[in-house]
């Protein structure tokens, strides 16, 4: 069956091979007589699924031995509270504002911290630039520095992680990598904690990934729920409470699929190729526009606008007819957004650009 190309920002497309494998194993996982959804998380079958998922992810993202991988629940927004409850010591924290998601993180952190310093903000230019880290004013003694490394709505991405040590800070860097996890390698030497919901690049909604340096465990505030205390979760191999078993299983299949493709280095190569094709076409056109500065354009989420917005509905209807789904922009910014995560093949972006060109020619 020919499937349409799905440009959703999340929950997003999953590689067809992963869906096919899950379908084949749905009623009877490896002769167990059970679906993965029906297994006890304490049974040997699920433990083997969990261990394989964790090992594959460690290999895929080259996670160093002094980092723990936690499979949690609560999503990215849940982590906006869980991170300060675990890391802030109720003191001051620093936040870099680059778009809607970091703004949400700032608001939530303020509930748990004595102070939330805005290190720098790109709000004045409508979240279309990336303030150079060399000019950041980091707070003295802040418990951590929070950065959203890919702003899913505004399409702003960090193409290298800030080096806080070089900026004179010992604070751990916390990254929200929800919408570009596994699309490129991570420089763990610069990171204290990374979190992300699975529903964009890793699998179904319901699973939240946390990768945390061991020395950051064990500092949760007394008000932190036990199920969200990173140390308790780590000490119990993510099974203090029932983990999102189905999400872990599908993410595990996705990790193996990514490894078979050549890992994150190969994904990065493909993602650059796809992004160049799409941005290149938008920039060459008088009909469409992307407003993000060239040095921080997201390879995953490409917001774009028709210069004549009265044609938006016709554009979306024509796209749907051609099997190009879920291109409508986020309601807070309008326009269009093409999310071109790992599961989107180059052919999907070629089909999108082909349609955009056809639509432009028809209407100019
Ligand atoms: C960068 C980023 N952070 C956080 C979130 C919130 O994630 P969730 O809906 O899983 O809480 C999203 C969701 O789109 C996101 O893109």
Question: What's this, in brief?
Answer:
By secondary structure, the chain is an alpha/beta fold. The chain has two domains: 17-260, Type I PLP-dependent aspartate aminotransferase-like (Major domain) (Aspartate Aminotransferase, domain 2, 3-Layer(aba) Sandwich), CATH 3.40.640.10; 264-362, Aspartate Aminotransferase, domain 1 (Alpha-Beta Complex), CATH 3.90.1150.10. It is 33% helix and 16% strand.
Molecular structure report:
With 364 residues, the chain is of the alpha/beta class. The chain has 2 domains: 17-260, Type I PLP-dependent aspartate aminotransferase-like (Major domain) (Aspartate Aminotransferase, domain 2); 264-362, Aspartate Aminotransferase, domain 1. 33% of the residues lie in helices and 16% in strands. It contains 9 helices and 14 strands. The protein has a 7-stranded mixed sheet with strand order 2-10-9-8-5-3-4. A 3-stranded antiparallel sheet has the order 11-12-14, covered by helices on one side. Helix 1 (16-24) crosses helix 6 (245-261) and helix 3 packs across helix 4 (100-109). The radius of gyration is 21 Å and the shape is globular. 45% of the residues are buried. The model has no long low-confidence stretch (mean pLDDT 97). Bound molecules: pyridoxal-5'-phosphate (PLP). Pyridoxal-5'-phosphate binds next to helix 3. Pyridoxal-5'-phosphate is lined by residues 10, 75-78, 101, 148, 152, 176, 178-179, 197.
């Amino acid at each position: 069956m020919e499937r349409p190309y799905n440009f959703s920002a999340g929950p997003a497309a999953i590689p067809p091979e992963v869906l096919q494998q899950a379908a084949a194993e749905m009623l009877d996982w490896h002769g167990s007589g059970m679906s993965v959804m029906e297994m006890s998380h304490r049974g040997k079958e699920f433990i083997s699924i969990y261990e394989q998922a964790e090992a594959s992810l460690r290999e895929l993202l080259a996670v160093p031995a002094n980092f723990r991988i936690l499979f949690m629940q609560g999503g990215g927004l849940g982590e906006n509270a869980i991170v300060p409850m675990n890391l802030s010591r109720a003191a001051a924290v620093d936040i870099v504002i680059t778009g809607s998601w970091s703004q949400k993180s700032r608001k939530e952190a303020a509930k748990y911290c004595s102070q939330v310093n805005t290190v720098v903000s790109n709000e004045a230019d409508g979240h279309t630039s990336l303030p150079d880290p060399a000019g950041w004013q980091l707070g003295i003694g802040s418990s951590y520095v929070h950065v959203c490394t890919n702003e899913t709505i505004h399409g702003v991405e960090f193409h290298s992680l800030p080096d806080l040590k070089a900026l004179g800070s010992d604070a751990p860097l916390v990254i929200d990598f929800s919408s570009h996890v596994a699309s490129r390698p991570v420089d763990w030497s610069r990171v204290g904690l990374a979190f992300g919901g699975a529903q964009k690049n890793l699998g179904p909604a319901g699973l939240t990934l946390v990768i945390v340096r061991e020395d950051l465990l064990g500092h949760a505030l007394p008000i932190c729920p036990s199920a969200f205390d990173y140390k308790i979760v780590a000490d119990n191999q993510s099974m203090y409470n029932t983990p999102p078993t189905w999400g872990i299983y599908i993410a595990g299949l996705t990790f193996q699929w990514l490894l078979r493709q050549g890992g994150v280095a190969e994904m990065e190569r493909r993602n650059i190729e796809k992004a160049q094709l799409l941005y290149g076409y938008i920039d060459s056109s008088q009909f469409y526009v992307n407003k993000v500065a060239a040095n921080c354009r997201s390879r995953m989420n490409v917001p774009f606008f028709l210069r004549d917005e009265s044609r938006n509905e016709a554009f979306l209807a024509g796209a749907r007819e051609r099997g190009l789904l879920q291109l409508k922009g986020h309601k807070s910014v309008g326009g269009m957004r093409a999310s071109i995560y790992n599961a989107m093949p180059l052919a999907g972006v070629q089909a999108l650009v082909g349609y955009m060109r056809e639509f432009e020619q028809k209407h100019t």
